[in-house]
Design a protein that fits this description.
Helix content is 20%, strand content 23%. The chain has 552 residues and is α+β, with helices and mostly antiparallel strands. The chain folds into three domains: 55 residues, no CATH class; 287 residues, Naphthalene 1,2-dioxygenase Alpha Subunit, Chain A, domain 1, CATH 3.90.380; 113 residues, Rieske [2Fe-2S] iron-sulphur domain (Rieske Iron-sulfur Protein, 3-layer Sandwich), CATH 2.102.10.10. Helix 1 runs antiparallel to helix 10. The relative contact order is 0.16.
């Protein structure tokens, strides 16, 4: 049974079974009983933090699976729970619990820096980089600072629910941009294919006989039936189940049944319409626009250099989970683009850390990053500070913790990384809809419209675990699809990340409802902490052809 104090009020939240939580006010001795979804049942305490209720009383993970996802074995046979690799957690001491930190809220006054206003908990990252124990290994891109220019911006609410926006997104974004379709490991052999769907569009992404990857529109050129409904292995052709027309793996026409009845039609149907294909970091990207710029130009040199040493192509896909969300894909995605919400949405994280107000945010064209380096225990909104010496000690402790763990996975390759890289767990995003986190965080998020419904979306969560170079990998995890209202803890392969995402998802349907009702019909994004979202909307407006006057 879970039992934790609230990090700000000190109220004790205790699971009492049947989805109920007892909340005690330690100052008055009063209490309240609530269901995990916030319904008050009894007692003189009549309101409780909804996100703490979800964390304490919501559906839990199976025994042995409530673990930090970034320090778990990269591969576990189905149903088994293995000990953490190399016992990295032993650095905390056997059986030692992290002390819980409770401190009352205090306004963060901010501070002026050369780059503009930042949290009062701002950390000079150059101090950490200058004191790295392997300075020669620190990548130059770690020193780059590229904040989004400008101040707070407002964005119109219509783009989150109006059908016209969705329809225009299909034409100007989903048919025009580079987007991650799958991992190369998902289609390892000739004839293996996956079906990539976005909105009402569908593509067959297949490994061809010459070991190249092709992407074809998943539509029969006769009467428009989809050619395939499910991913498969070892295909030799794509034959339409309706009338038997077929195309080869490279998209060329193989047969028109009763072709005598279709004189002059072969030339028009000789090739399935193709999408452009490229690979990077073990990902397969497609772009339906055959005239699109090269993928390398789209990603940009800063992004590619930031990930270069981490060799994402070597990672093993240990989890892949999808759920329908009752919110527009942009609403869902934006919940994972800033750490500003930690103090409100993830209070339990502050019991052993900070409030993330001091995170670093940088934008580089289509790619943005945040939190690639920093000090996690500073909490300016709770008056908790660290001296530079304490910051450096924490920085090195985390580097040593990760190095100890990684040595048990990738061996001596870990010695090629600086303290900065061993700390890297950045939550990054690539326009329009993919978030390949940095460093050792393992997380990759994807966000899609759910068919043609602008009020729903699909959210994908993947975990890419480190894997030793040259060692054969297990087959990548298959996609697990959760029910629309099912807890993410039904996917225990996500570890404790599942309970964190449940907290995020609690907000989203209410945001979608509020956006439709809000007057005036716009919302605000902050100058710095929500700057990655502002960068997304800058790219979105450019892609959609939205004028300055129509942005808000």
């Amino acid at each position: 049974m879970r039992r934790e104090p609230h990090p700000i009020t000190g109220g004790i939240y205790e699971e009492i079974g049947d989805g109920k939580v007892r909340v005690e006010n330690p100052k008055t001795g009063g209490y309240g009983i609530f269901t995990w979804d916030g319904t008050w049942i009894e007692g003189d305490v009549t309101y409780a933090d909804p996100h703490m209720l979800v964390y304490i009383g919501g559906q839990d993970l199976p025994a042995g699976k409530d673990r930090y996802w970034g320090l778990t074995p990269p591969y576990e046979p189905e149903g088994e729970v293995l000990a953490d690799v190399n016992a990295a957690g032993s650095m905390l001491g056997a059986g030692q619990e992290i002390p819980r930190i409770v401190a009352m809220y205090k306004r963060d006054p901010g501070m002026e820096t050369d780059q503009g206003m930042r949290s009062a908990g701002h950390v000079d990252l150059n101090y950490l980089l200058d004191n790295d124990r392997k300075p020669e290994l620190v990548p130059d891109v770690y020193r780059l600072e590229s904040p989004m220019p400008g101040g707070p911006e407002k964005v119109n609410t219509a783009r989150y629910f109006e059908q016209d926006y969705h329809d225009l997104e299909v034409e100007r974004i989903w048919k025009k941009v580079w987007q991650i379709a799958c991992r190369e490991d998902d289609i390892p052999n000739v004839g293996d294919f996956i079906i990539y769907r976005v909105a009402h569009l569908s593509y067959l992404v297949v490994r061809n006989a010459d070991n190249t990857i092709h992407a074809h529109q998943n539509v029969c050129l006769h009467r428009g039936r989809t050619l395939r409904e499910n991913d498969a292995q070892g295909a030799t052709e794509f034959r339409c189940p309706y009338h038997g027309w077929s195309w080869r793996l490279d998209g060329s026409l193989k047969e028109i049944t009763c072709e005598w009845d279709f004189p002059g039609v072969r030339e028009d149907t000789s090739k399935l319409p193709a999408a452009k294909v490229a690979t990077w970091g073990g990902f397969v990207f497609i772009n339906p626009d055959m005239g699109a710029e090269p993928l390398e130009d789209y990603l940009g040199p800063v992004m590619m250099e930031h990930y270069r040493k981490f060799k994402l192509q070597n990672r093993y896909k240990q989890a892949h989970v999808r759920r329908v969300m009752h919110a527009n894909w942009k609403v869902t995605m934006e919940a994972f683009m800033e750490a500003y919400h930690v103090i409100g949405t993830h209070p339990q994280l502050m019991l052993s850390g900070g409030d993330s107000a001091n995170n670093r945010y940088d934008v580089f064209g289509n790619w943005s990053r945040a939190g690639h380096l920093g000090v996690s225990s500073i909490s300016p909104q709770r008056d908790i500070w660290r001296t530079p010496e304490e910051q450096l000690a924490e920085h090195r402790f985390i580097a040593d913790l990760n190095a100890d763990f990684l040595r048990g996975v990738i061996g001596d390759e870990v010695d090629q990384f600086s303290d900065a890289e061993l700390n890297d767990g950045a939550f990054n995003d690539l326009f329009p809809n993919c978030h390949p986190w940095g460093g050792w965080a393992r997380i990759v998020f994807r966000f899609f419209p759910n068919g043609s419904n602008p009020n729903e979306s699909l959210m994908d969560v993947m975990l890419l675990a480190p894997w030793p170079e040259g060692k054969p990998k297990p087959p990548p995890a298959k996609l697990k699809q959760l029910g629309a209202d099912e807890s993410w803890t039904s996917a225990p392969e996500l570890g404790s990340l599942a309970k964190i995402i449940d907290q995020d998802c609690l907000n989203l349907p209410y945001v979608q409802i509020g956006l439709k009702a809000k007057q005036p019909p716009y919302i605000w994004y902050s100058a710095y902490q929500e700057s990655k979202i502002r960068n997304f909307h800058r790219n979105y407006n450019n892609a959609m052809g939205i004028s300055e006057e129509a942005k808000s």
